[in-house]
Amino acid sequence: MNTASAPIDAATASADRLRITEIFLSLQGEARDAGWPTVFVRLTGCPLRCQYCDTAYAFHGGEWWDVEDILAEVAKHGVRHVCVTGGEPLSQKRCIGLLQRLCDAGYAVSLETSGAIDISAVDPRVSRVLDIKTPGSREAERNRWENIDLLTAHDQVKFVLCGRADYEWARDMVATHELDRRCDVLFSPSKSELAPRELADWIVADRLPVKFQMQLHKLLWNDEPGR
């Protein structure tokens, strides 16, 4: 591992390296694999600035890791599930190769991505957890709608909702794009902005074909980094 965090130079840019904020073992707190012991590989950098972001510490800094060292660190933890997250992991082009290497090593791999970047090159063995940004996120204009046609039953779509207006917007998006026919659809309340029970009641009342979810890791460890 190269721990230098200096600006990118030509040698670094051409190497098989990624800038990493942290690699840690925890429980998967959301999506289809919630509850599984999971190694999280958090890449540094994100072009979006969602107003509710809870990982702004991953926007900058980080350390350069060789892909081989990332794989070795993941293997040390001895679990099957690996989640590549950020920031926005796909903002680093070499993330695509890392995902393939993780799949080749036999891991059950998921990718948490903002939905603002093309997902077509992601290895089909990866479960892509695609955010669709609502108006309440203040980044809805960054949604790359072409990604929807690429979704399969192996993937998942997530909406983080800040209030009733976001809920109605997301409900309309699910219907317009028939998202529930493509893959699992997840609705989450934005912490401190929407009461979980309120969102649950709306979903039940409308009989929406979506899964309500809360962030298990926040219930257990609040916003502690690396958990």
Automatic annotation (TrEMBL):
GO molecular function: lyase activity
Claim: Protein transport is one of the keywords in the record: no
Known catalytic reactions: 6-carboxy-5,6,7,8-tetrahydropterin + H(+) = 7-carboxy-7-carbaguanine + NH4(+)
SUPFAM superfamilies: Radical SAM enzymes
Binding site for [4Fe-4S] cluster: 46, 50, 53
UniProt pathway annotation: Purine metabolism; 7-cyano-7-deazaguanine biosynthesis
Family: Belongs to the radical SAM superfamily. 7-carboxy-7-deazaguanine synthase family.
Official protein name in the record: 7-carboxy-7-deazaguanine synthase
